[in-house]
Design brief:
- The model is unreliable at about 155-170 (pLDDT under 50).
- Helix 3 (about 35-45) crosses helix 4, helix 14 (about 310-320) runs parallel beside helix 16 (about 350-365) and helix 15 (about 330-340) packs antiparallel against helix 16 (about 350-365).
- The protein is of the alpha+beta class.
- The strands form three sheets. The protein has a four-stranded mixed β-sheet. Strands 3-6-7 form a three-stranded antiparallel β-sheet. The protein has a two-stranded antiparallel sheet with strand order 8-9.
- It has 16 helices and nine strands.
Amino acid sequence: MTTCKEILKILEKREIESVILELKSSEILQEKGWKDELAKEFVAFANRNGGKLIIGVKNDGTFNGEIDYDVDKLKGDINNIVRDKISPIIDYDFEFIRCERGDISIINIKRKKDIPHAYIVNRKSHEIKSRTYYKRTPHGKSLVTDRELIDLFNEEFNDESMDLIEPKVKLKIDITLIREYLKMIRESPLSPLSLVPMLNRIHIEFMKMSHKEDMSEEELDIIKDYATTINNFTLGKKPVIRKIVTGTIRLFVLNPNLVSLIKEINYTSIEILYDLGIKTNDIGLILYKCGKFESISKEIYKTIDDKDIYSLKMFKGVLYSIKIVEDKYLFMKKLRLKNENLDKISDINLIEIITTIINYLETYD
């Protein structure tokens, strides 16, 4: 059981606040979308080192005072958040404490024990349609990049010290299954209803090894087989199919040792999709890694000048997935200048995207 004295000591150590501690005014419980906000915070904690989310304390460390909400209802709401908005379900406990300065509710989030936790964006019945992953950083929660997600899936933990140890591949890739599925795709006229689960399963298998530096000949052969098969049989199909396969190719290009293979087999087809106006984050990243775009900052400047919101959104997604090698301060300075030259009414959507990019760069470490 946490005591008021312990909470006061934690609040005094401001340097750790954003890593293992999140403060929320009790007013958040009156805000629209507060359950989704807390779900994302829970996921971020669980995917890092765990932590405490305290309701009843403002960001400056001052208490709200006596509670103005039903504690039992909040307990139920938290339980529903964990059950309905997070996959897999996190391990947590709930505490309510009356302190001299005010009443607080504490949600203690435990660190993940196995695969990373995700915030459920869209669910239909028991089927999760889409999800996003968050982690805790010194600046609060942050979306997880593809490389970080691969590492999260392959982390092992020392139960005694709970210190992160060298990431390892815990599961062996099922090459036989992938080979059988690829053969079916080549030889059978499959409907999207049949293709989707097969391609999703292949994607999951490749996540187990796409980050490896040293691959066996068998592993390289199955990647080449996949790249060739989807290039000839699936890239031109429906968006839902294209989204899965470009997502898998994205995994490959994040491994420097696989870029040349993908560039040789898939680059032309991906570039055709791009030229046709299909500018998704995955396609943008694949083309960037294959050398189509020399500089992300220059591409972003150009899309702003052209007021091309669609392309700007794509390059924003690419920026979130790569290591920034350019001078971020010069990057931010130029973006702010471009923002100032835009019309605050007609260019409001453009301004919002640029502001989001600037905010990301400010927190980029």
